[in-house]
Amino acid sequence: METYTAENTRPSSAILTVALCFSVAVLEGFDIQAIGVAAPRLVPELGLEPNQMGWIFSIVNIGIVIGAAFGGRLADRVGRKPVFMGAVTMFGAFTLATAFAGNFASLFIVRFLVGLGFGAALPNMMAVASEISRPERRTITAAAMFCGLPFGGGMSALLTQVFSPETDWRVLFYIGGALPLIIVPALYLWMAETLQRGAAETGARAPIGEALFSAGRAAPTLLLWLTFFPTLLILYLILNWLPTLVAAQGLEPAVTPRASLWFNFGSIPGALLFGVLVDRLGPRWPLAASYVALVASLALLGGSTTLASIVFFSGAAGFFLMGANYSLYGVAAAYYPQAVRGTGSGASVAVGRVGSVIGPMLAGILLSQGLTATQVILAMVPAAAIAGVSVFLLSLYPQAE
Question: Architecture of domain 11-394 in CATH?
Answer without folding.
Answer: Up-down Bundle (1.20)
